[in-house]
Amino acid sequence: MYRIIDKIIYNTKPMSSKKEETYQKIQEAISSGDLRPGERLVENRICEIFEIGRTPLREALRQLEADGYVDVVPNKGAVVRKISLKDVEDIYDIVALLEGYATEIATKYIKQEDKRALRKIQDDCKEAWRSKDFSRKWLGKNALFHGYFPKLSGNLYLCSQIDGLRRRIYRYRLIAATIPGSMEKHISAHEEVLNAVFKKMDARQAGRAMRRHVMYVKKTLIDVLKHYPGL
């Protein structure tokens, strides 16, 4: 746990305050799965690693609790909030709707340079699939693919909502990627989206393709989590 946090400290960009910096580092560790649901955040150790006082840490923990990342338990302190099966289902349902909408908007504004960028990202996704590089390459490239459409839509609020929801389920996205046979479906679904955007310039079809893709990921993931609830 703390080895991972050490790594994050040196990779995180400076922020405007110790509270915000601490919030960002802990949030990233939770989103990536390095801090697992139910894991306790020991104040003394985190203060030592982050080289901060208790006041900014506790302020960050209050914000993390308000945002749904941790629970502050009496006589125990802060623990990473557990995400229920229903939470995962609900989040994927909303992501499917929002990403589908973002893809519809983005299709209307797409340019040739965007098409080239998306094709390169998709080629990188295929390479990650062939090399079975799930945790390092696939997650990053897949995130770029899904994040491209909200950014292209130009709607900052839409981008923020999608990004926040996806951060909550980041560790489950790795599980979804490693389900046997699922990667082929992901690659094929990406191609369906790109075909609707590039060749047909059909915003509604592109949105539907994105929604189907996200809902498929949800279904396969939920099936696995039901059989292996300890994941």
How is this structure best described in words?
Helix 5 packs across helix 7 (134-153), helix 5 runs antiparallel to helix 11 (203-227) and helix 7 (134-153) packs antiparallel against helix 8 (156-168). 28% of the residues are buried. The chain is globular and about 60 Å long. It has helices spanning 2-11, 18-31, 43-50, 54-66, 85-109, 112-131, 134-153, 156-168, 170-177, 182-198, 203-227, and strands spanning 40-41, 70-73, 77-80. Helix content is 75%, strand content 4%. It has a three-stranded antiparallel sheet with strand order 1-3-2. It contains eleven helices and three strands, in the order H-H-E-H-H-E-E-H-H-H-H-H-H-H. The protein folds into two domains: 2-80, Winged helix-like DNA-binding domain superfamily/Winged helix DNA-binding domain (Arc Repressor Mutant, subunit A, Orthogonal Bundle); 85-227, Four Helix Bundle (Hemerythrin (Met), subunit A), CATH 1.20.120.530.
Keywords:
231 residues; Arc Repressor Mutant, subunit A; mainly alpha; 2 domains; Four Helix Bundle (Hemerythrin (Met), subunit A); 75% helix
The rough form would be described as globular
The helix/strand series, from N terminus to C terminus, equals: HHEHHEEHHHHHHH
Strand order in space, largest sheet: 1-3-2
Distance between the termini: 17 Å
Number of helices: 11
The CATH class of the largest domain is identified as Mainly Alpha
Helix/strand-derived category reads mainly alpha
How is the main sheet built?
3 strands, antiparallel
Strand element count: 3
Number of domains: 2
| CATH arch. level architecture of the largest domain | Up-down Bundle
CATH superfamily of the largest domain: GntR ligand-binding domain-like
Beta-strand percentage?
Answer: under 5%
Low-confidence stretches: 1-16
| Percentage of residues assigned to helices | over 70%
Task: Summarize model confidence as the mean pLDDT.
Answer: 87
CATH topology of the largest domain: Four Helix Bundle (Hemerythrin (Met), subunit A)
